[in-house]
Amino acid sequence: MLSLDHVSFSRCHRPILNQVSLAIPAGEFTAILGANGAGKSTLLSLLAGELTPQHGHVRWAGQDLRELANSQLARVRAVLPQNPGLGFNLSVDEVIAMGAYPFAELSPSAVAEVIQAAQQWADVSHLTGRRYPTLSGGEQQRVQFARVLVQALAAQQAGEYRCVLLDEPTSSLDPLHQHGLLAAAQKLAQEAGIAVVAVLHDVNLAARYCSRITMLAKGSIIASGIPCDVLTPDHLQQTYQLAATVIAHPQDPKRPLVLFDC
Amino acid sequence: MCCRLLIPNWLAGLLATGVLLILLVFTASHGAVQIPLSAIPDLLLMNAPLLSDEQQFWRDVLLEIRLPRVLFAALAGGVLALAGATMQALFRNPLAEPGLIGISSGASLGAVSAIVLGGGSFAILAPAAFLGSILATALAYHLGRRYAGMAGLLLAGIAINAICGSLMGLFTYLADDNQLRSLTFWNMGSLAGATWQRLALLGPFLLLISIWIMRYWRAMNALLLGEREALHLGFAIKGLRRKLIVLVALLIGPLVAATGGIGFVGLVVPHCARMLLGADHRRLLPASFLLGAIALVLADYIARIAVVPAELPIGVVTSLIGGPFFLWLLLSRKS
Lengths: 262, 335
Description:
Chain A is α/β, with parallel strands linked by helices. Chain A is 32% helix and 29% strand. In chain A, strands 6-7-8-3-9-10 form a six-stranded mixed β-sheet, with helices on both faces. A four-stranded antiparallel β-sheet of chain A has the order 2-1-4-5, with helices on one face. Chain A has a two-stranded antiparallel sheet with strand order 11-12. In chain A, strand 9 and strand 10 (220-225) form a beta hairpin. In chain A, helix 4 (108-121) packs across helix 5 (137-153). The longest helix of chain A has 17 residues, at 137-153. The N and C termini of chain A lie far apart (40 Å). Chain B has a single domain, classed as Orthogonal Bundle (ABC transporter involved in vitamin B12 uptake, BtuC), CATH 1.10.3470. Chain B contains 14 helices and no strands. Helix content of chain B is 76%, strand content 0%. Chain B is globular and about 65 Å long. Chain B is an all-alpha fold. Chains A and B meet through helix 2 and strand 6 of A and helix 9 and helix 10 of B.
């Protein structure tokens, strides 16, 4: 299991994260919520092994992340970075197929099978054959998501712990595809048993699809747990500096619905 | 892009190889001494005593001068273009070329100092140029490492290029008329020195390194996505960067030492290959090699026949034709 153990991180002596401990359990879809500059992306980068904490440890199955080889980690952990850009002229198929690069042992037919499944999950089947730079921002984001899905699903063995990290995956998507992407991420957690983490801004989307929510403010965790425990007016006020009313969702009373009072 | 060639990889490879082979035979038979194409099979297959005097002469020209030269041109063009494509992937910028990190200017400085201080025979010049290129690159890499990403390497490369340039100016100032002439010509490049011996010395080594570089196509594709993305896909960026720079230096250092400065191939050819085939390095790297080979064989042919019986420096031809061609490409491309 991937976990943060009393992790502190600062940039140029400015503290970003302070004594953060968090476990990322398999089969759960965890949302990271927080205001701009709260440290969400830094937290994700630490989980991804891009950054090394000044204090504390990031652990993968008890082992420090730094001790794991990059190529090994790529076989069990996939990341969708924020604002993926691409300067060169590649086709959509070529971008998606990159998700299979860490699995050199897979046969082309096995790779094709995973790619097809990922394309359906990410709703990009109709984009195959197009050039990546000609796509809209939202379409590019979904193609990148399909690439991440390929990496997450390729050569997966039953019971193996895997992790997918998504940094603001819905930032350029229309409402339909925001729901589509988060539903796919939820399926990834529930059906494939993968640990999924997403940095999100829409509180109600998180309540709809995520099984756990972690709220971050000024580099510390305010609350962490199941949505109806975490999404309280008090926590929302601390996180966003905004008064909020929380009611039961009219169509699904077990789910909280957050209304910001402004 | 609408103008991409939609043909299978193997067919494109076969076509390009075919074109290259035909060009090799054609350019080998043309020049100051014309050898009829129909005579070539006889020249290659018949025993020497059976040939007429004229045929003997043709045979010597073909086997001892032309053939090693066109083969060397193909090798040099392929290597330059492949190194260019690799640098463009590494810097994630289509304007990158091997000269960016001091490889070429280091070689020039080595060559120029050899000409001015050491007389300038090939036996001194080539090792000096090789040493210069490797030292300049190593220095740029070492100094640039302190910055994150490629910015440091780029800045160090610029500084090293400037220093090499000024030292070259100093040597030019010190040189006498003969030396001036030699170093001017060296800087414009030439394939006239190509011999079987030199080909045997460099060919297998350069081909080996080329194949080695082509094996990194996955990593170079991942770099197109971004350095973070490449990291997430399991490529150790720092190690990868060092490996690719060393491989490029091992390609360009010995080559520049043997041919002098041949500009523009490394910049333009990968660009053309990318326009034709897209940016997937699995295709782009071999395609750049083949197109580079074709381009330089053609350029060398033009250098040989343009001012018969004299010869233009090859670097002049590549830039003189490559420059306007590149401009035309850029302007004719609809945005």
